[in-house]
Specification:
Distance between the termini: 20 Å
CATH topology: TIM Barrel
Largest sheet: 4 strands, parallel
Helix content: 40-55%
CATH architecture: Alpha-Beta Barrel
Number of strands: 8
CATH superfamily: Aldolase class I
Strand content: 15-25%
Number of domains: 1
Number of helices: 10
């Protein structure tokens, strides 16, 4: 399955920061077992590229890179095996590079001007981050009027308590965040529990 198919089917994008390669492989296997075969590896640690490489060895898991802010990071991510990119904001340079490499990209855009710029770059699926700071559900409802052709992936302040409210909006393609991989289950290394939790979302 490709990036769009997985997102359309499950509408969840787990965000993960790699700190330990052994743990990251266990997490990747839990996602496949939990029928959510996708992971966004944040470029927030020195292990990001290594983590992408390791996770890409898991059959059936679609691995992408998140928190990509520069073309150099995008290049490193793609060379390590990233099948998609997610950026916190809008960089025309990074978007054009991803398009040249034929790699899907979800770029961050929260204001009307940014959304217009993203649309002009050919992007219609956009990251809405940090969702809670920029008005959450009410902001998305307001933006949908003029930007009815765009879909959004809200992250930042999306939680277990409110993610279904976001998903009730049909122009929300998916929601993302680390809430999909609860810290307490990771800390306890409760892989069976994590697989079950993911399956239940």
């Amino acid at each position: 399955m490709n990036f769009n198919e997985v997102l359309d089917q499950r509408r969840l994008l787990p965000l993960y920061t790699v700190k330990d390669l052994e743990e990251c492989l266990a997490v990747g296997k839990c996602l496949v077992e939990g029928n959510l075969p996708i992971i966004e590896v944040a470029f927030r640690s020195d292990y990001a590229a290594e983590g992408i490489k390791a996770l890409s060895s898991i059959d059936g898991l679609l691995v992408g890179a998140g928190t990509v802010k520069t073309t150099a990071q995008a290049q490193q991510a793609i060379e390590s095996g990233a099948a998609f990119l997610v950026t916190p904001g809008l960089s025309a340079e990074v978007v054009e590079y991803a398009k040249e490499q034929n790699v899907p990209i979800v770029a961050g855009a929260v204001t009307p001007s940014e959304i217009m710029q993203a649309n002009q770059l050919g992007l219609t699926c956009l990251k809405f981050f940090p969702a809670d700071v920029y008005g959450g559900i009410s902001a998305l409802k307001a933006l949908h009027g003029p930007f009815f052709e765009s879909t959004f992936v809200p992250t930042g302040g999306v939680t277990l308590e409110n993610y279904k409210e976001y998903l009730a909006l049909n122009y929300v393609k998916a929601v993302g965040g680390s809430f999909i991989l609860p810290k307490e289950l990771l800390k306890a290394k409760d892989w069976q529990g994590l697989s079950s939790f993911i399956k239940g979302l």
